[in-house]
Amino acid sequence: MNETHEYTLTGEELTVTIKAPETCTGTRFDRTGWITQVRLESAGLNFCVPESLVAGQGTGGEGLSGEFGIEKAIGYEEAAPGESFVKLGIGALTRIDDESYNFARTYPVEAYEVQTEIGPAWIRFTSTAPEHNGYAAVLVKTVEIDGRSLHIRYKLDNTGTKSFSTSEYVHNFMGIGGHPVGPDYVLNLPYEPELHLLGDGGVEDKLELSAGRMTWNALAGEEYYSLFGGFAVGELPYWELLHQPSGAGVRERGDFDAFKLGVWGSGHVVAPEVFIAIELAPGEKREWTRTYDFFA
To answer: Which of 29, 79, 270, 280 is the most buried (most CB within 10 A)?
Structure first.
């Protein structure tokens, strides 16, 4: 373990690399439990890639990058320019101007205190957002490995005097073994959600969706985004990304209802994003778990 840069969880099957919160920059992605790489040792395969292969391009995502409140940060609408608002897992951000909140912008930030505990196969981060304008919260995130499975366990406690609503997802920047994204990949969705958007990057003709699976008929190339909704109550999140020639893949499952599913990608990365909707009154807590299974 390098105390100044990263933590490493090492098991019989998986090696997981996690950023130290104090080394994280930017004001988009949750600084607690930011997983930059997962390696399946028996297959010699890495599963995580950066958002962009061009230095300085994009929003700085890499690996399993979580985010709270991508559409609306807590307290942003109430804050005047120069006043702060809550970005869970990061800090008190300062509103810059009268424009709407934009996750891709960088805001001045006063980082929240993060406490770290380490066990034999797990690491736990506790991020405390002190009270501001009635909003306050404590986020506890535990990353644990078990065989070929990686668990991310969340506990969010509203410790303020105001209710808040937000969302959370993980921007899973996946590129199995470094193989380029194209006909060798398939994204399996064992349900058939409503398709709200397909393309948004000029590559609509390369994406094919049928019977709960997304495929590519050519190398993906430029960026694209697709969005799915219409999940039934009790429909738990699940997706599986498979690199067919090698038989290697990863699936995500969870214990919460899916709110929506986005799939972002480009020539080197596929990023399925399962959203959970969260509403907490003062004193209320919410717990949920994401599990990733890696195979080859």
So the answer is: 29
**73 pLDDT above the threshold of 90:** yes
Sheet containing 185-188: which strands, arranged edge to edge? Answer: 113-118, 122-132, 135-146, 149-158, 285-295, 248-254, 238-243, 185-188, 213-216, 207-210
Is 133 buried (19+), middle (13-18) or exposed (0-12) by CB count in 10 A?
A: middle
For residue 3, what pLDDT band results from cuts at 50, 70 and 90? low
Q: Yes or no: say if 40 and 57 are a contact pair by the CB < 8 Å rule.
A: no
Residues 84 and 147: their CA atoms lie apart, in Å, by 42
| Position 257, amino acid | D
**CB 37, CB 82: distance < 8 Å:** no
* Plot region of 89 (φ>0 → left; ψ -120 to 50 → alpha; else → beta): left
* All structural domains of the chain: 6-295 (2.70.98.10)
